[in-house]
Specification:
Structural class: alpha+beta
Helix content: 25-40%
Number of helices: 1
Radius of gyration: 29 Å
CATH topology of the largest domain: Lipocalin
Number of domains: 2
Strand content: 35-45%
CATH architecture of the largest domain: Beta Barrel
Distance between the termini: 76 Å
Largest sheet: 8 strands, antiparallel, barrel
Shape: elongated
Length: 158
């Protein structure tokens, strides 16, 4: 009787160990598959410009590059641009905090050009094209609009 009881306890311990081992193996496999699938679904695409940017200056030039006189009759505007994972969002607020303009979408970055696509489907009709330069935490973007060159200078926010 005692031998049968000891044999039963040994078999139960072996069976419990086997089940625990299989549970650990399968959970490791499922965890690995979940990581593999999440890497594919949520793959990060960072760029050199990832971060939060504050607009610090806007300059306008005529098509020959001569600076245009600026009229400062508008209220103080504040703009922030957030760039992450080949996406951007931009919000412009008045001094009192009212949101005046907001946009978001995709970006495409080449050595000389920065493209913003309003919305989340790259379309030539929704694209704004900039020449860009990055120097000492400042991003300078230039674009042409109605025979004017508009230069925006953005400061990286720490």
């Amino acid at each position: 009787m005692i031998k049968n009881l000891q044999l039963g306890l040994i078999l139960r311990n072996v069976y419990s160990g086997l089940l625990l081992g299989l549970l650990l193996i399968f959970s490791s496999l499922f965890y690995g598959l979940a990581l593999t699938n999440s890497d594919k679904k949520y793959q990060q695409h960072s760029s050199l410009l990832d971060g939060t940017w504050r607009l610090i200056a806007v300059h306008q030039f005529d098509k020959s590059g001569k600076p245009l006189a600026s009229v400062d009759s508008s209220p103080v505007l504040q703009s922030l641009k957030i760039v992450a994972n080949l996406h951007f969002s931009r919000v412009t607020t008045a001094d009192d905090g009212r949101v005046l303009n907001a946009s978001a979408g995709l970006i495409e970055l080449t050595k000389e050009r920065y493209y913003e696509y309003a919305g989340f489907k790259p379309d030539a009709h929704s694209r704004t094209t900039y020449q860009w330069q990055l120097h000492n935490g400042r991003l300078t973007q230039r674009r042409t609009d109605n025979d004017r060159i508009i230069e925006e200078i953005w400061q990286l926010v720490d």
